[in-house]
Amino acid sequence: MAYPSQLGFQDAASPLMEELLHFHDHALMILFLISTFVLYIIVAMVTTKLTNSFILDSQEIEIIWTILPAMILILIALPSLRILYLMDEINDPHLTIKAMGHQWYWSYEYTDYEDLGFDSYMIPTQDLTPGQFRLLETDHRMVIPVESPIRVLVSAEDVLHSWAVPSLGVKMDAVPGRLNQVAFVASRPGVFYGQCSEICGANHSFMPIVVEAVPLAHFENWSSLMLEDA
Hints:
Blueprint lengths: L14 H33 L5 H4 L2 H29 L7 E8 L2 E6 L6 E4 L21 E4 L3 E8 L4 E5 L4 E5 L5 E6 L4 E6 L12 E7 L1 H14 L1
Parallel strand pairs: 1-5, 4-10
Antiparallel strand pairs: 1-2, 2-3, 5-8, 6-7, 9-10
Membrane topology: Multi-pass membrane protein
Protein name: Cytochrome c oxidase subunit 2
Organism: Planiliza macrolepis
């Protein structure tokens, strides 16, 4: 999760987020080079009194500064389109979970099981135990198996919400009356935090999302216990 004074992204916990981080670094380097070049040109023009008639009126230079930006845009657009299609790719998910947004909590339903579902409320500050995070902990976590394709069906019951977990590279709007889907694979075990990312009312900042990725054997034990309690 994020730490105080963090400037970059959270550590990637899914292959998709790793791709997004690589694209971010790729685009940032291009922007850095462009900014440095433009700054150099501005300083050179301000500080020198020399002029060159071939620079002031040159067909070749106009061709260069037309083609070069187009090539740079292509270098940015192609990786971006690739990631865009990867984000929409859903190949035979091993587990489907329906996440329903309410004012102001989330409910989860494991549709592959007959009766496995629960509501996930934020733990109040006064009830937190040592080591838990304020405004981020929930009484029930969404548990998933590691290295398994997961599909999440996202919708809402009342107003617009948004189901977002940054370290997994996932963000999907929850729209009443509409079922959106998003897919991801957790590449390592861990607990990943997110929050509703759509302003949804007075308690918008009090409906966190906690995803716990565990080995498959642990997930099967957890689901068995949840079904017994149900």
